[in-house]
Known about the structure:
This protein is an alpha/beta fold.
Amino acid sequence: MAAAIAGLIHPGEMGVTVGAALKTAGARVLWASAGRGEATRSRAADAGFEDAVTLARLAASCDFVFSVCPPHAALEVSKEVAAEKFTGRYVDANAISPEAARQVKQVVEAAGASFIDGGIIGPPVRSPGTTRIYLSGPEAEAAAVLFDGSLLEAEVVEGAATAASALKMAYAAWTKGSAALLLAVRALARAEGIEEPLLREWGISQSGLEKRSDQAATGNAFKAWRFVAEMDEIARTFGSAGLPDGFHRAAAEVYARLKCFKDRHAPVFQGPSCATGAGRGGRKAAENQNLIVIVSRAPRIALSLWWHCFH
């Protein structure tokens, strides 16, 4: 039996490990280098992916296309693939709401492709047992078997065609939503001058919470920019279910205020220049803006984050 041919859009930090898992399991993995940056080209080359150069060639060559991109780009990517008349199986593995996934489904099916919904839970997969890709829809099993024997565990979710996206939204609503809340609580405590007594009380009645708040800062600062659109998608999911969406609208704002640490894997104090410029939605910092420093207390970690507090 011939190996499946899977196209990957795009080999970012998560996507490249998805492609590596597919390759380990026996699939040929293609990507399209046209318009991509040097870092992406390097990741794809290191992983041994075949370069189709253009999206048109990728679409014409592949049985499957896996979309692994930032949430805000998911619909546009589906339109680009549909424009190339792809008629294979399209797997949207992005952190988007079920409503957004249904829009992607309409786009790719109108072009003649089959839609498979996906949701990835866990970090970029580099060791067994850490990361799962959940898949849903009538042809989900066809995608799941592509990962047999790889580090990425594939699970089929029964129910609606977009059940995998719903699961991803519900999961991240807690993990990333609660991390944003902890960051905001620490900022509030610092702004009001009661951080030390709060941490003492946490030590008495909420064991482990200080460590979790430290980890929320040190683990998320450099990638917080990626979470903004995901929090918006979660809010959209809550709203569509008739539930309050304000929790995650606020979480999006929290993560937006950490964008100055984009891709700094060891964030360090940068001084006031890190806090200059516009806030989310183009809002300018008011003259009476407070700059709150959140200092991680975790052992051997030196992390200072400048926090924007608008009045």
